[in-house]
């Protein structure tokens, strides 16, 4: 039982409600296997470049910004083998302007969070990606890129983050979001230094 009296079951119900609310089809996607954190792979920037080309072909001039983010964008950092990409558009809330084209190209809209920066997430047609869609100028884009850039140039924090991820990956998680949430404190700590 936690300090506020909630049980693990209560926490899981809250998480499941949050996940269901952000899922366009209301379907939950539990992990089939554990969280895998692997050594850095030089193929990750290549996979990003391929996705970048495809997204530019699909959306053309609507793309305001496209960046490789997350752990796979940091040379030398162990990561889940999933490429995180930031896509900035004129308005991520204007789904008719981009979702049909993305879906026609094989991307699947998995997350819709209008209450959190109008954030959307697509999964890729043939590569394990998280394509994070935001409105151009969104402050979350700046935070994600500041975190990436800091880890690229600060070995001590890169080691801290890697150690944390590997330790958490040893635990059992029903949903990937629970694993991501468990990293929050160390992410905040490192981001605080990056933004100072």
What does this entry show, briefly?
This protein is an alpha+beta fold. The chain contains seven helices and five strands; from the N terminus they run ααββαβββαααα. A hairpin with a 5-residue loop joins β4 (119-123) and β5.
CATH structural fold name: Beta Polymerase, domain 2
Unreliable stretches (pLDDT < 50, length at least 5) are none
Order of adjacent strands in the largest pleated sheet: 1-2-5-4-3
Number of strands: 5
Query: What is the first-to-last residue Cα distance?
Result: 35 Å
Shape: globular
- The structural class is alpha+beta
What characteristics describe this protein?
globular, single chain, Beta Polymerase, domain 2, 44% helix, alpha+beta, 196 residues, 5 strands, 5-stranded mixed beta sheet, 7 helices
Account of the protein in words:
- By secondary structure, the protein is of the alpha+beta class.
- The chain has one domain (18-195): 2-Layer Sandwich (Beta Polymerase, domain 2), CATH 3.30.460.10.
- Helices cover 44% and strands 15% of the residues.
- The protein has a five-stranded mixed β-sheet.
- Helix 4 packs across helix 7.
- It is globular and about 40 Å long.
- The protein starts with 7 loop residues before the first helix and ends with a helix.
- The mean pLDDT is 95.
How is this fold's topology laid out?
Blueprint: H1 8-22, H2 43-59, E1 65-69, E2 83-89, H3 99-104, E3 108-113, E4 119-123, E5 129-135, H4 139-153, H5 155-169, H6 176-182, H7 184-195
Parallel strand pairs: 2-5
Antiparallel strand pairs: 1-2, 3-4, 4-5
């Amino acid at each position: 039982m936690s300090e506020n009296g909630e049980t693990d079951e209560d926490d899981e119900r809250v998480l499941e409600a949050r996940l269901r609310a952000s899922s366009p089809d209301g379907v939950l996607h539990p992990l089939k296997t554990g969280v895998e954190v692997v050594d850095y792979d030089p193929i990750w920037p290549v996979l990003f470049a391929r996705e970048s080309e495809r997204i530019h072909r699909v959306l053309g001039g609507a793309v305001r910004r496209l960046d490789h983010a997350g752990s796979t964008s940091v040379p030398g950092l162990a990561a889940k083998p999933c490429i995180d990409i930031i896509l900035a558009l004129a308005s991520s809330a204007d789904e008719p302007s981009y979702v049909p084209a993305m879906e026609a190209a094989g991307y699947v809209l998995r997350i819709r969070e209008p209450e959190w920066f109008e954030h959307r997430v697509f999964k890729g047609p043939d590569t394990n990606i998280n394509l994070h869609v935001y409105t151009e100028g969104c402050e979350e884009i700046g935070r994600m890129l500041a975190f990436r850039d800091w880890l690229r140039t600060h070995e001590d924090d890169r080691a801290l983050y890697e150690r944390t991820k590997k330790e958490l990956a040893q635990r059992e998680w029903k949903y990937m979001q629970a694993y991501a949430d468990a990293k929050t404190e160390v992410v905040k700590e490192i981001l605080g230094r990056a933004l100072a």
